[in-house]
Amino acid sequence: MKFDGCNALITGASAGIGREFVRQLASRAKSLILVARREQRLNDLCEELNQRYPNLAISFRKTDLADLTQLNELLAWLDRERIDVDLLINNAGLGDSGPFATSDPLRNEQMTLVNMVALTTLTRHLLPRMMATRRGGILNVSSSAGFLPIPDFAVYAATKAYVTSFSEALRVELRGTGVSVCALCPGPVHTEFQAVAKRPGAQPDTGPEFVYVPVEGVVRSALAALEADRPLFIPGLPIKLGMFLVRATPMPILRLLSRFAPRRGCAI
Questions:
Q1: Helical segments of the chain, H only
Q2: Which of 62, 66, 214, 227 could form a disulfide with 113 if both were Cys (CB 3.0 to 4.6 A apart)?
Q3: d(CA 64, CA 218)
Q4: Which of 100, 117, 125, 92 is nearest to 13 (CA)?
Q5: Average pLDDT, integer, range 142-158
Q6: pTM for the predicted model, two decimal places
């Protein structure tokens, strides 16, 4: 799929990777639909784009994708306004860092709703139209965390494993339909994600600086991967090599290695 003249819907569009998708698509798209929880940020972003790209049709919808009522209202609005979407970027995501036994049950529910349910529901709603016109692209933002179970990120990693598996299966189903599917599996990126995922009183989880990839590079490469009809993209050579080794290592060996990994204390 080529993005020139596309009608794109981006979730989680108010910050981080989602906002960068918006900015990089603005010069090529015909229209953009931005979806996120923070209305003021969406409004500010729309004003920025309207000044730079006066011919771009841009609209936004304040939606908390962890709220099924708001999700259904978003779908109804798309239908009511007869908005055709031929590029769907499922970017919205929630994380949590810490032992599962002390996790917030509400946060766990919100993660599954945003990372899996909303992504699946939006894809199902928009896909038939893409297939009917034989033109479409679906970019699902997964994570390198989805390649293996990660202690202290148990629910988050599991939801991202779902996103990657779902994307791979859907891609096979859509072969020959004109609709491309790609899973983006980034490692560490400097966004607000780490700060939001950390629990009160805890320090954000950080890794060595050399594994981080600039958000601009992540988005640029992800869009190129979808245009090239690639099934999966991992930005950054260190993470790419690391995930290759992880995926090639049998699970019994990974379990053994996990015994030597440093662990947080689990206070219940």
A1: 16-25, 39-52, 68-80, 105-112, 119-133, 154-173, 193-197, 215-227, 237-248, 251-258
A2: 66
A3: 25
A4: 92
A5: 92
A6: 0.88
Two tokens, residue 218 = 């992540």
Question: Which one, of 255, 264, 120, 125, lies nearest residue 199 by Cα?
Answer: 264
Q: What would the pLDDT profile of 209-224 be if each residue is shown by its tens digit?
A: 767 789 999 999 999 9
Residue 176 backbone dihedrals phi, psi, to 5 degrees: 85, 0
Using DSSP's 3-state secondary structure scheme, residue 31 falls into strand
pLDDT of residue 266: 34
φ, ψ for residue 62, nearest 5 deg: -70, 115
**Residues annotated catalytic, as ranges:** 156, 160
d(CA 80, CA 212): 41
Residues 6+ apart with CB under 8 A from 58: 26, 31, 32, 33, 34, 46, 49, 50
What's the chain's average pLDDT? Answer: 90
In sequence order, the β-bridge partners of residue 136 are: 179
pLDDT at 268: 27
Name residue 15's amino acid: A
Distance CA 265, CA 98 (A): 9
The three-state secondary structure class of 17 is: helix
- DSSP characters for 144-192? GGGGS--TT-HHHHHHHHHHHHHHHHHHHHTTTTTEEEEEE-----SSS
Biggest CA pair distance of the chain: 57
Q: What is the pLDDT of residues 242-252, one digit of tens each?
A: 887 877 788 78
The identity of residue 54, as a single letter, is P
